[in-house]
Amino acid sequence: MSHSQESGGRRLDRRRFLTTAAVGGATIVGASALGGLDAEAAFAEPMDSLDTAIPAAFAEGRVVAMNRNVLDVAGSHGERYLIQLTNATSIWKLRTTTAESIEVGDGLYARGAAMPDGTIAADAVWVNIVNVYVTIRGIAKDRLHLTHGNEELVGHIVPDTTTASYLGGALTADLSRTRIGQEAQVLGAWRPADGNIDIARVSLGH
Amino acid sequence: MACGSTSLWAGEATWFCCGNAWGSCGSAGTGACGTCQSSKHMAAWPNLSAACWDITRPDLCGENMPRRTCGAVMNVRHQCSGATVCVTLADCGPRTKSFCGEATCCNGACRTNRVIDLTPSAFTAIGSLSSGKLPVYIYE
Fold first, then answer.
1. Residue A111 touches chain B, beta carbons under 8 Å
2. Is A126 part of the contact surface with chain B (CB cutoff 8 Å)?
3. Which residues of chain A have pLDDT under 50?
């Protein structure tokens, strides 16, 4: 996988672009602004682990404040992170989206570069993303009732977004083969307001 | 203990959360080893113990990986990008038997069956959380 993109006739390293944008106070534009780089590819592209000049960084927690292009995040183990969103930041919240969709109270995972001032210049941010192993307990037209461990959850089926994979098969919008008692992996977006999940993809097992 | 380069296994890597967390992960706990945190480069292995094996049963999918216990370290490398992360075992998983035959591919080459679960910190070092699965080689 390439770790750089062609831009303006010269190769532009993703991490260098990101950190330069952060230092320059780039405005929020959401998904990658690196020409020709599709959104999923941007999420999939971790920064070069051999680039020791700019150490990689990871953050996890909940958004407690937002100030222009900086997210103030409280980590689940007491850490505090300031996460800079730049022109090179890709953002996922149920689907590829823009920074305007991020709200105070959201949970997130962020990957990026550690900046000298202690902030993290993010190259990818996954907002409210969860990936849980569940058992299907009930099926309705617009939702699945699930158990995750001892916890009951509702997984909302989102039109034009939710897909299913049966026994490792291709993704389909057809959820009609879902059965009560099936074990499944649900990847989706947690809803802070009610604790339930909007389903991006449900992988049905045996 | 350092991560090595001796080939151990190959298959699908998935991700899970553990430790203090938000949302649906809030009830996850610190895993079978009591040390698991989403923000650390950690992993779950299907043969962490006999009790773990009884839950995951990778042998039902033809995967008879060796026992590796809490604290063991492994290098996990994305099959196509070559991106690699060194992880420490901290939990039991994934539930291989529930997804026998499932494959994840890149560049036309596929890896089959869930053989390792990575924390978000580890998974994002080699791929995207929104993909949910990655084809990987594992070394120790």
1. yes
2. yes
3. 1-12, 26-39, 47, 49-50
Residue of A nearest to B107 (CA): A1
CA distance B96 to B63: 9
The per-residue pLDDT for range A63-95, each reduced to its tens digit, is: 999 998 999 999 999 999 999 999 889 999 999
**Is the CB of A35 inside 8 Å of chain B's CB atoms?**
no
Q: How many domains, chain B? A: 1
Q: Are A106 and A134 in the same domain?
A: no
A59 inside 8 A of chain B by CB: yes
Average pLDDT of every residue of chain B: 95
Cross-chain residue pair B23–A40, CB shorter than 8 Å: no
Residue B96 tokens, joined: 């291989």
Same domain, A35 and A9: yes
> What percentage of chain B reaches a pLDDT higher than 90?
89
Contact B102, B11 (CB under 8 A): no
Question: Any CB–CB contact under 8 A between A81 and chain B?
Answer: no
Task: Note if the bond before A159 is cis, omega within 30 degrees.
Answer: no
Residues of A with Cβ-Cβ distance to B78 under 8 angstroms: 1
Using a 10 angstrom Cβ sphere, with 0-12 exposed, 13-18 middle and 19 or more buried, the burial of residue B96 is buried
Tell me the per-residue pLDDT of B31-45, one tens digit each, with 9 for 90 and over.
Answer: 999 999 999 999 999
Select from A56, A132, A168 the Cβ nearest to the Cβ of B99: A168
Q: What does the pLDDT read at residue A53?
A: 63
- Cβ-based contacts of A43 with chain B (< 8 Å): 128-131
> What integer best gives the mean pLDDT of chain A?
82
> Which of A127, A152, A181 is a domain's end point?
A127
Count how many pairs of residues, chain A against chain B, have C-beta atoms within 8 Å: 133
Tell me if A127 sits within 8 A of A30, measured CB to CB: no
CATH code for the domain of A20: 2.40.50.140
A109 touches chain B (CB under 8 A): yes
Residue B26 and residue A43: Cα distance in Å, rounded? 24
What CA–CA distances, in Å, run from B37 to A75, A128, B18, B68, B78? 11, 17, 5, 19, 22
Q: What is the CA radius of gyration of chain A?
A: 19
